[in-house]
Amino acid sequence: MEKSSYETTQEFSGKQKQSCRNWLDLPEDITGSILSRLRAIDILENAQLVCKTWLKMCKVNPLVWRTIDMDNDMLEDFYYGSLESMCHDLIDRSCGSLVKINVVRFGTNSLLKYITDSSSCGIRHLRLEKCRWITDEGLCAVASKFARLVELDISECSMISYKTLEVVGRSCPLLISLKWKFGFYDKGSNSMDYGDSIARTMHGLHHLSLSGFKLTNEELRNILESCPHLETLDLGESFLPNLEQDLGRRCVEQITRKLRLPFDCFHQIQH
């Protein structure tokens, strides 16, 4: 006997309910891992308000705060001072388990010191973008505590120069990824200083992105020779006049995953 459409619908609905898992039934470590992938503001204003269980977890479970993402979208509603205070609080919630943190615009030397002093696991991923209050002195003072750092983004930190880059290179033997966008007002001298610092101290790099720099053939050659493990090289927003053809071909041959050169360089390679 054929089932009625009503019975079929009810049966399908029942199967749907059975297949939908209650998130509250997930193990706490899995839930903590999922929540840690959200931006800090999304956890504070949304996730922790879902239920009492999640509220408690967001307050006392360090797994939620192994990663802290405080991007600049938050600046519409908060002042710099309150953002730094909030960041202190979230770092405290991590109970020393912090391994990855993104700080955009509001970072200071004192916050950077608090980050390094509070992480017993060792920071592995650090993004400091447009943090104009972080200086050479501030970053150099904590560089020795970045022994486990593998990824660093210091784009448009206007008070950081090549001197800090060399200290970081010597202090971070595990560093495999560096991203640096050179802002218009950034501190520094000849860009050769930056290229030489990378070539001298960052031999383990796999990923390098430099934007806004004026590079030379010698600088690029030194980087390629000193960083043999480079898989991705992004120079698309830098300047590299008169690229030598043999050097261009070497880039194509050595960089196996992603190569982005200034636009006019590809024309020079082809000719």
Automatic annotation (TrEMBL):
**What SMART domains does UniProt report for this protein, alphabetically?**
LRR_CC
Q: Which Gene3D superfamilies match?
A: 1.20.1280.50, Ribonuclease Inhibitor
Superkingdom of this protein's organism: Eukaryota
Coiled-coil blocks? none
Residue ranges constituting the F-box domain according to the UniProt record? 20-68
What PANTHER family would the database entry show?
F-BOX DOMAIN CONTAINING PROTEIN, EXPRESSED, F-BOX_LRR-REPEAT PROTEIN 21-RELATED
Name of the protein described by the UniProt record: F-box domain-containing protein
Organism of origin is: Rubus argutus (Southern blackberry)
